[in-house]
Amino acid sequence: MVKLQDILAARERIRGAIRPTPCPASDYFTERTGCAAVWFKMENLQRTGAFKERGALNKLLTLTAEEKARGVIAASAGNHAQGLAYHARKLGVKATIVMPERTPLIKVSRTRDEYGAQVVLTGANFDEAYAEAVRIQQEQNLVFVHPFNDAQVIAGQGTIGLELLEQTPFVDMVVVPIGGGGLISGIACALKETNPRIQVVGVQTEVLGSMKASLDAGHVVELPAGATIADGIAVRKPGELTYSMVRKYVDQVVTVDEEEIANAILVMLEQEKSVVEGAGAVGVAALINNHIPSANDKKVVVLLGGGNIDMNVISRIIERGLVKAGRLVRLEVRLPDRPGMMALLTSQIAERRANIVEIHHNRAFSKASLGEVTVEVTLETTGRPHILELIDALGRQGWQVAEET
User: Fold this and answer.
1) Which of 81, 237, 343, 354 is the most buried (most CB within 10 A)?
2) Average pLDDT by consecutive 10-residue portion of the chain (405 residues)?
3) Please, what sign has the CA dihedral across residues 352, 353, 356, 357?
């Protein structure tokens, strides 16, 4: 088990190489949740875009000269890879990283091209990449740096907890993402060993809630593989060490679904002007969807684990989020197939101050009867009331209107 002394030692070890991240208060979330106050611990602002470099650097600094000369290897969905590669390069240690084939391109290119690691892409998920990393480690006699089930890695992540005690000394609850459990193990140890009254809540994706399933079962369990936008915490099986520490120190573990995560990313972009990846946004998703009722009336810190998100994914998330919020809608309108109808349709839309993004006039492949035409129109709106107003206004023209979902 990692102890508070290990985390204190880790802080001294990495001091100067890892700068403390800010922990600003959020007026928006304080006003729109039942919390007394909300802060965000912005680990997405680390040099490599995530908290992982804390644990990676602490592990590297505890290696012997002989181990450094052999080189290190790790399996990672991206953030551990970047943190380890960046600091290994600075210390002159050769790093090999095995990543799942579907790892976002931004994480692969940074690990390989910017931070100088040798990257091996293999497997459909973390567990398959991990198995290949173990094989290479044994074949080449490298030092394995586990992304979460390692005492030095956990101690490095725990330095976040020490910073929180200084930045928000009156905090009641800290909400932390969970993948394999290294992050929350270190933070919870630092907090609970210093101030046991602080509640620590973990959040996982519903698709791969392996830590929650293990806690419910009373032993470590392995879940089937699953696809999630929170790829950084897509871990089928937590570590034995992290499982033990979570059982000891963590008060509660909850899960969030994919739509909630996507919406949390969008809200953070729009309201907090902060880019957060899926794995880093699960705590936000849990808070705004009231999955943590015990947070009501409490001073809460939500940890933003990382911001390394593919721009193509952000684009899709924004569009889906806008649809969910009623800010983007596609209507199917059946009109009489005669001159002037399209102009009348667009004028009705303009009068109600909706903006046309895309319009498709479908005659040949429409299910409408002869003498009618189907027009599919995608609109920017201000929300659900605006959409209902549009549907009502178009319906009063005698047109059949349907909203695509």
Assistant:
1) 81
2) 97 95 97 95 96 97 97 91 96 95 82 94 87 96 96 98 97 97 98 98 96 97 91 91 98 95 92 94 97 96 93 85 86 91 94 94 72 91 94 94 87
3) negative
SS3 content of the chain, % helix, strand, coil (to 5): 50, 20, 35
Contacts of 78 (CB under 8 A, 6+ apart): 99, 103, 104, 107, 108, 111, 231, 232, 308
Give this prediction's pTM: 0.88
Rounded Cα gap, residues 10 and 342, in angstroms: 68
- Residue 143 is encoded by which pair of tokens? 């030092």
Is 357 in contact with 328 (CB distance < 8 Å)? yes
323 Cβ neighbours under 8 A, 6+ residues apart: 329
Q: What pLDDT is attached to residue 322?
A: 83
Specify the residue for token string 């009623």. Answer: 326
Distance CA 59, CA 321 (A): 39
Q: What angle (nearest 5°) sits at the alpha carbon of residue 274, between those of residues 165 and 84?
A: 65
> What are the DSSP calls for 189-211, one per residue?
HHHHHH-TTSEEEEEEEGGG-HH
Name the residue type at position 285: A
Q: What CA–CA distance (Å, rounded) separates 34 from 102?
A: 38
Give the pLDDT score at 365: 67
Q: Which of 60, 72, 183 is nearest to 133 (CA)?
A: 72
Q: What is the CA radius of gyration of the chain?
A: 25
Residue with tokens 């880019």: 275
How many other C-beta atoms are found inside a 10 Å radius of the C-beta of residue 49? 25
Amino acid at 1: M
Q: Is 209 exposed, middle or buried (0-12, 13-18, 19+ CB in 10 A)?
A: buried
Terminal Cα-to-Cα distance of the chain (whole angstroms) = 50
pLDDT value, residue 28: 96
- Name the token pair of 365: 């492949």
CB 152 within 8 A of CB 186: no
Element (H, E) at 394: helix 384-395
Max CA pair span of the chain: 82
Rounded to an integer, what distance in angstroms lies between the CA atom of residue 403 and that of residue 405? Answer: 6
Tell me what pLDDT residue 364 has: 67
Q: Nearest CA to 40 among 162, 174, 184? A: 174
